[in-house]
Design brief:
CATH superfamily: Divalent-metal-dependent TIM barrel enzymes
Largest sheet: 8 strands, parallel, barrel
Protein name: Inosose isomerase
CATH class: Alpha Beta
Number of strands: 8
Keywords: Isomerase
Oligomer: single chain
Pfam families: AP_endonuc_2
EC number: 5.3.99.-
Helix content: 40-55%
Strand content: 5-15%
Order of helices and strands: EHEHHEHEHEHHEHHEHEH
InterPro entries: IolE/XylAMocC-like, Xyl_isomerase-like_sf, Xyl_isomerase-like_TIM-brl
Amino acid sequence: MLAINQLSTLRWSFAEDAHAYASRGFTGIGIYRPKLEDFGLDRTIELLAETALAVTSLSWVGGFTGSDGRGFSDAVADAINAVRDAANLQAGTLVVLAGGQNNHIRNHARRTLCDALREIVEVAEEFGVRLSLEPIHPGCGDEWSFVNDLQSTLDIIETVDSPSLGLVLDTYHVGMDEEVVRWLPDVVPHLHLVQLGDARHSPLGEMNRCLLGDGCVPIRTILDTLREQEYDGPYEIELIGEDVESLSYESILDHAKLFMDRITDRVNQP
């Protein structure tokens, strides 16, 4: 399944997103929670049925360390509400960001995250919802997450030890690490979603993704390896940043679909 995350067309309405994605042959949509809140859950469910789009992800919950100004209990309560929304949307996964380290020592921040995840997975298991922890590159996301690499993400998943908890692999955040391909055999058993992003240089400051194939992320190699490891889950494209903001959303979507059609044909060749 190939999807587009709504962050890629942030200025469009929910209805514009859904119709534009479906008309171009995308079969999935990554939902951004503020757009869901604006449009409403019931209307969203109706629109998804109309456009035959599956929800690959709901983004995001987190901030359990207090880095976004919320207390621990408020962040957990918000996440539990999002679990219910994800269940109603039949979302493939609910994305989790750990929160910034926020002047805590790293071990305390990690314990706080694990405590939050243990509370949330109890509800997620009840509702049949999968949670996915996403590692974020430190160059552009220290305030969003202290979990920055695949190894630490897998360590947390092992510690929490719930069948409902896995991870999101975003090639923008981890794809330029030369070790990522070596890690994929360990990652795939826990992998709920692959987000595709490209960039002309390592993340630094604001997120700045370029059109797929225009950057230095080895997307084809990653896709080849995922196929070899028998990953059969969804792919979700996320395009946002200065390198694409001057382009029309229509052209961004058209380019993304054409790129993926071409690269998927090559990857699938024997």
